[in-house]
């Protein structure tokens, strides 16, 4: 696989409608070309959700993943991605789902617990959780992204008929904050104890001295999710942002799961960074935390630690039977070495602060 054709796993995030979301960033996919003014870095990052949604829908329609909500956030016809990209979508999504499920399994369903998705965009994980056969209870789910992104998402939720038995119509808590309740299938007009709060704000404004987010539960066990969000912020900003939540939470359990690129200095990594830069996207933390050890050190300083590459997750977390099923969807993967190279440049890191939040997960999917 030649360098210019190397696909980018940063496009493998969930969600998206006609605009990026996930105030985090995803891939260099929506960069503008041709004449005219170049979009700002913020606009470029916000505009990257569309390709992620297309990649996710590709994996769903080919049978890699089950997500009845993926189509709701994609405009236009579905586009089939390369098998290597579909496998990457599957592996990253499955790994994070496994960690989220583990967090929920180690916290009491009889008491509130919360998940905070940083730069959530139009991610569908919350919808999948609320409709899971596991019948999860007492989840306060928070999604944070730019105001325009969250406003668009609440409109989609409010106007999509197929979601009206899943979520209540979002109620405004402020001009840029909305809350929905999940609805039980048996009683679609009666909310249960799961809530989704959409926060429209710039993550860079959250500091240790910032007010606690509306509906945030300071004493509840909390899981922070960052799928290619923190890597697009300056290191000092990510530190300040994480400190906001450590200061806001008095719970004995604060957990973190993040998905980011690594290894920017080898030949593959240089090409990856160059491709992103050509579309106006920079990843400030990539040079500061370039290896798995650096990412673990970064999290250990905040009380968190553990990581695995996407390649390692595929090899160690996915059962042989599931590998066989996935490989059979498109007749196997021809570019095995290319897959190992690509997937070795992306990492899922996770950990905890205090409590019983043992996230040392080695679960076969």
From TrEMBL:
It catalyses: [phosphatase 2A protein]-C-terminal L-leucine + S-adenosyl-L-methionine = [phosphatase 2A protein]-C-terminal L-leucine methyl ester + S-adenosyl-L-homocysteine. S-adenosyl-L-methionine binds at residues 92, 119, 202-203, 227. Residues 163-177 have a biased composition (Low complexity). Residues 1-46, 163-192 are annotated as: Disordered. Its EC number is 2.1.1.233. One of its GO terms (molecular function) is protein C-terminal leucine carboxyl O-methyltransferase activity. Pfam families: LCM. Keywords: Methyltransferase, S-adenosyl-L-methionine, Transferase. GO terms for biological process: methylation. Residues 178-192 have a biased composition (Polar residues). Residues 16-28 have a biased composition (Gly residues). SUPFAM superfamilies: S-adenosyl-L-methionine-dependent methyltransferases. The keyword Thylakoid does not apply. Belongs to the methyltransferase superfamily. LCMT family. Methylates the carboxyl group of the C-terminal leucine residue of protein phosphatase 2A catalytic subunits to form alpha-leucine ester residues. This is Leucine carboxyl methyltransferase 1.
